[in-house]
Amino acid sequence: MKNKEIISVGVIGAGGFIGQDHLKRLSTVIEGVNIEMLYDLNTEKCTELANKYHARVAASAEALIADPQVDAVLITAWDGVHADLTLKCIAARKPVFCEKPLATTIEDCKKIVEAEKEAGETLVQVGFMRRFDADYRKMKEILKSGELGAPIMAHCISRTPRIAPGFTDPMQITNIVIHEIDLFRWMLDEELVRGQVHFSRSTGFAESGLHDPQLVLMWSESGVLIDVESSANSYYGYEIGCEIVCEKGTLRLPVPAAPIVRSRLQCAVPVMDDWSERFPDAYKNELQHWIDYLRGRTNQPGPGTQDGYAACVTADALIRSQQTGNTESIVL
């Protein structure tokens, strides 16, 4: 596959929002790829998308993975099937891009790590797309240069205007804070070792029983303290923030450029509505990196099974803290 000019991809979970978003990228801005086959539980939607992208419809996820014309698999199905499908891809020796989380349990993550080791090759990339955002990459470069001295603390916000019904306290960690978990392992080049979750008074927009927002604290091996304000019902819009405090200065993620509109008695900047508006280039870059790696254009794989496993272990510790209120150890 390293010498192939075009990688034929099969997409499992094609009908969901993220699946359709990735299909649009694969068909318009990603080089060296062909959409070969689609599968989704919603057969009507899957057929509609297959017609749109001139792809074939698979009878099942297993049939897609086994199809000889499918070179690689993109998994955008719901979280609960990620582990099973990824393991089936590894067993078939099919490279796979799996959206985060890699799995919902530590045990399943371990199985994936071991299966890939037994296969003897790097087959899995996990969808931690913030590593591919230009601003975060620049922040990492500045930290690595040492010009600001050692990092000491980090302050983050992750606000989503609304969330689907059935969202739970643990999902605040596995679906939202998981990005900061991976981001700071990558940004600091060290592991996270402790974590704690605090509940505030909940917003009136949260479903009954849901604690929202939440404040997450994490400590790295060298003692960097990271706080993340995570909100699934911010109401006003989608906003991501990050400031890293170092010995000689600070680094702050820039606010995305937007026109400043002056109108009758007001001066305003538009606020984004969701993640797809905030990180289009990061999603494009991560998918292009995956395809480039499969084509042999780069020897550096993207975030893999060990990153997915570390994120799962960290998330598990934070979910325990939601239940106990204590600071919980993160043991990889």
Question: What descriptors fit this protein?
Answer:
332 residues; alpha/beta; seven-stranded mixed β-sheet; six-stranded parallel β-sheet; 15 strands; 37% helix; globular
Short description:
With 332 residues, this protein is an alpha/beta fold. It is 37% helix and 23% strand.
Could you walk me through the main structural features you see in this protein, from its secondary elements to its overall organization?
There is one protein chain. By secondary structure, this protein is of the alpha/beta class. Helices cover about 35% and strands about 25% of the residues. The protein has 10 helices and 15 strands. It has a 7-stranded mixed β-sheet, covered by helices on one side. It has a 6-stranded parallel β-sheet with strand order 3-2-1-4-5-6, sandwiched between helices. A two-stranded antiparallel sheet has the order 13-14. Helix 4 runs parallel beside helix 5 and helix 7 packs across helix 10. It is globular. It starts with 6 loop residues before the first strand and ends with a strand. The relative contact order is 0.16. The mean pLDDT is about 95.
